[in-house]
Specification:
The structure is a single chain. The chain has one domain. The chain is 66% helix and 0% strand. The protein has 5 helices and no strands. It is elongated and about 45 Å long. The termini are far apart.
Length: 111
């Protein structure tokens, strides 16, 4: 069973298995470099998550001691992964965002 754009667009309860496969595929895309993403953004994500992972594993095995503010890095990494995952889902689903406010101007008659 392959993953398609329609799997991401449909609701979770319509076909939970296909939607879960699509979500996991997009999560996988969050951590690999591919032709449809921004290489600089992906590199920064991988570096931050890599440093966080090394610190967590080091602390688990008693090799490293975490600073008191480490929970802030956990929050940042969680938000970063969530945001990157959302970007990959939107890219995979073919959702396009515009950065112009043409729709607002047309609706308000501000021309």
């Amino acid at each position: 069973m392959s993953v398609s754009r329609e799997d991401v667009r449909r609701g979770f309860f319509e076909d939970p298995v296909r939607r879960l496969r699509a979500e996991l595929y997009c999560l996988w895309l969050t951590f690999i470099v591919h032709e449809e993403n921004n290489d600089a953004r992906k590199a920064v994500t991988l570096v931050v998550v890599g440093v966080w992972g090394i610190m967590e594993v080091g602390s688990a095995f008693g090799v490293a001691e975490l600073p008191n503010q480490f929970y802030l890095l956990r929050v940042v990494v969680g938000v970063l992964i969530g945001r990157m995952w959302g970007i990959e889902i939107n890219n995979f689903a073919g959702v396009e965002f515009t950065h112009t406010d043409e729709n607002r101007r047309e609706g308000n008659g501000d021309e």
